[in-house]
Amino acid sequence: MSEHIATETATDAQSPNTTAGETVEAVEDEWTEYDFAGDAKFSATDLNVWYGDDHALHDITIDIPENSVTALIGPSGCGKSTFLRCLNRMNDRIKAARVEGSVELDGREIYQEGVDLVELRKRVGQVFQSPNPFPKSIRENIVYGPRKHGDIQTGLLSRLLGRDDSDAEDDLVERCLRGAALWDEVHDRLDDNALGLSGGQQQRLCIARALAVDPDVLLMDEPASALDPIATSKIEDLVEDLAEEYTVVIVTHNMQQAARISDQTAVFLTGGELVEYGDTDQIFENPQSQRVEDYITGKFG
Ligand SMILES: Nc1ncnc2c1ncn2[C@@H]1O[C@H](COP(=O)(O)OP(=O)(O)OP(=O)(O)O)[C@@H](O)[C@H]1O
């Protein structure tokens, strides 16, 4: 992480505790490098995103460690989802979006020609705000991706290829549902329609579906915002467990949730700026930036 040099005026930065002309640097206390053990899964450098003329993300430089939970927090419209979408190039699907800068995954640039986007999105899976299972059986939801990618052959294709992977398919369904803490609740009704599950179960099924293509990373955009407190708590427990094997990057509006489940927290503020990034306990207990403190204590944002 390079040092964050804040040079804009207080007025530009919308800080409530500054007077005109005072530099943000004076009140913000530059935050220092976030030093973590282990390797970076993602390294974003000078990342900028525009939607048409709207400059949504400004010079984002951040290293995200592997096998941990990184929370992205900040007020509505500050660019959290935009940043998340940069990590598997989902912004490519938005016509108005233009991305400049670098994002490396395991040291390899994902914004270069020749990157296989299907492969990238297999490695970097995504779970959305509202559960969106396919209107198919629980089992079909899990095996859909691997079958599509040709990782599992059944039916006509298996006969043509002389290869029947039905045992592998059963194993995969069980492994993914266990991985998403759903197996015990659904193992006796795998052929039931997924739309018959509760909202929380549907969201865990979507996580199981994401696990089925063997990702390294799970991007989660407010995965519990549509759920009740009990279902939310199950998702939170699951996210913490998943981080033992996967790198999880999660957008949340819920600061308590970020504090509960993440190892490190990145705070974006209005205007698409990454204002502070560090160990979650430090961010919530002792933020270096005045603006972050104001945001966390509810004074603005
Ligand atoms: N598809 C899009 N087309 C045009 N502008 C967009 C698009 N998506 C996001 N924006 C704009 O980019 C800025 C950042 O939006 P983004 O959704 O990334 O913020 P966010 O922090 O995730 O917000 P929220 O918490 O409300 O989901 C906003 O000004 C938003 O209006």
Automatic annotation (TrEMBL):
<dbReference type="GO" id="GO:0005315">
    <property type="term" value="F:phosphate transmembrane transporter activity"/>
</dbReference>
<dbReference type="GO" id="GO:0016887">
    <property type="term" value="F:ATP hydrolysis activity"/>
</dbReference>
<keyword id="KW-0813">Transport</keyword>
<dbReference type="InterPro" id="IPR005670">
    <property type="entry name" value="PstB-like"/>
</dbReference>
<keyword id="KW-0472">Membrane</keyword>
<keyword id="KW-0067">ATP-binding</keyword>
<feature type="region of interest" description="Disordered">
    <location>
        <begin position="1"/>
        <end position="21"/>
    </location>
</feature>
<keyword id="KW-0547">Nucleotide-binding</keyword>
<feature type="compositionally biased region" description="Polar residues">
    <location>
        <begin position="8"/>
        <end position="21"/>
    </location>
</feature>
<keyword id="KW-1003">Cell membrane</keyword>
<dbReference type="InterPro" id="IPR017871">
    <property type="entry name" value="ABC_transporter-like_CS"/>
</dbReference>
<dbReference type="GO" id="GO:0016020">
    <property type="term" value="C:membrane"/>
</dbReference>
<dbReference type="InterPro" id="IPR027417">
    <property type="entry name" value="P-loop_NTPase"/>
</dbReference>
<feature type="domain" description="ABC transporter">
    <location>
        <begin position="42"/>
        <end position="296"/>
    </location>
</feature>
<protein>
    <submittedName>
        <fullName>Phosphate ABC transporter ATP-binding protein PstB</fullName>
    </submittedName>
</protein>
<dbReference type="Pfam" id="PF00005">
    <property type="entry name" value="ABC_tran"/>
</dbReference>
<dbReference type="InterPro" id="IPR003593">
    <property type="entry name" value="AAA+_ATPase"/>
</dbReference>
<dbReference type="InterPro" id="IPR003439">
    <property type="entry name" value="ABC_transporter-like_ATP-bd"/>
</dbReference>
<dbReference type="GO" id="GO:0005524">
    <property type="term" value="F:ATP binding"/>
</dbReference>
<dbReference type="GO" id="GO:0035435">
    <property type="term" value="P:phosphate ion transmembrane transport"/>
</dbReference>
